[in-house]
Amino acid sequence: xxxxxxxxxxxxxxxxxxxxxxxxxxxxxxxxxxxxxxxxxxxxxxxxxxxxxxxxxxxxxxxxxxxxxxxxxxxxxxxxxxxxxxxxxxxxxxxxxxxxxxxxxxxxxxxxxxxxxxxxxxxxxxxxxxxxxxxxxxxxxxxxxxxxxxxxxxxxxxxxxxxxxxxxxxxxxxxxxxxxxxxxxxxxxxxxxxxxxxxxxxxxxxxxxxxxxxxxxxxxxxxxxxxxxxxxxxxxxxxxxxxxxxxxxxxxxxxxxxxxxxxxxxxxxxxxxxxxxxxxxxxxxxxxxxxxxxxxxxxxxxxxxxxxxxxxxxxxxxxxxxxxxxxxxxxxxxxxxxxxxxxxxxxxxxx
Length: 351
Ligand SMILES: Nc1ncnc2c1ncn2[C@@H]1O[C@H](COP(=O)(O)OP(=O)(O)OP(=O)(O)O)[C@@H](O)[C@H]1O
Ligand SMILES: [Mg+2]
Hints:
The chain has 351 residues and is α+β, with helices and mostly antiparallel strands. It has helices at residues 6-9, 56-62, 84-98, 120-132, 143-150, 191-206, 212-222, 253-277, 280-289, 303-311, 324-334, 336-342, and strands spanning 12-17, 21-26, 30-36, 39-42, 51-55, 70-73, 76-77, 80-81, 109-114, 137-142, 161-166, 171-177, 180-187, 208-209, 233-240, 246-252, 291-294, 315-317, 345-348. It is built from twelve helices and 19 strands.
């Protein structure tokens, strides 16, 4: 299935390394892993390096609860690499798991996704971290392009295909036609910023200090982009800033929606601005056929409907919003020839 030399060189693997989640796919198998992009480590004692103690789900469970000397880090921040060493370590760990823990004699070819509109230096950091993580060759695909392929948009046709991917750190939009990007845009405002808005709201309205994990739970449980038919409440537990003691407060979906609204407006305005820059023939296709919404924040109740109302275009939400990018990379892994038209740059390991 992987060609005569596959055993020698390792499998072809795809990595969607996002701010919140790392999703791995393997040629011929599709998505095989989806875990938080978090690492836990023990801080360096004199001379020794940082000692990594957990990755992914296990590391995320430690966030905000670590004893002295232990820290958790999200090496990707706002879509780009913030901590090079830890990014390399995260990739190395998951590439090794994708190879069933067996270190192949060679190294895998890897396709990674990056945000659109990043600098060459930021893109090179992704390539170098992936080489550092054990790849033999690295191919780069822009995140919304991969998402468009993942959700099955006919991007090679002469028609306007619009994808909007709202993740944890970045919101990205692209219009594709004839296998190329016609217009794209991105904003370093997405799910994390929604969580931050809820942290602020709780602090200002209730003098309650909450962590980002709690804010995320509140958002996912009762957050919405539009008024909902029924009232919902969620018990938020945090620390009362007045006396420093633990406290629980019931919050309504209306309050959550109002707090999220400024963040959603910024994202929707970015999409509007992109539509305005789209050539008329392609904009007409989008007005007819709609845009596709992907990324984890597409799961926010009513977001698709809200975008549709504000921008007057039909909106379809991806079936697997959290996996759309990796699904696209998996399709690219299966069609290397086709892939080469789509990819933006290639890095080779010097081995
Ligand atoms: N049910 C839900 N409602 C609202 N938001 C959700 C829901 N489920 C997940 N999310 C949000 O989706 C975001 C993660 O999405 P995703 O995995 O696509 O991001 P990412 O690819 O890691 O980040 P990026 O591409 O921006 O670097 C998080 O902010 C998370 O809180
Ligand atoms: Mg993403």
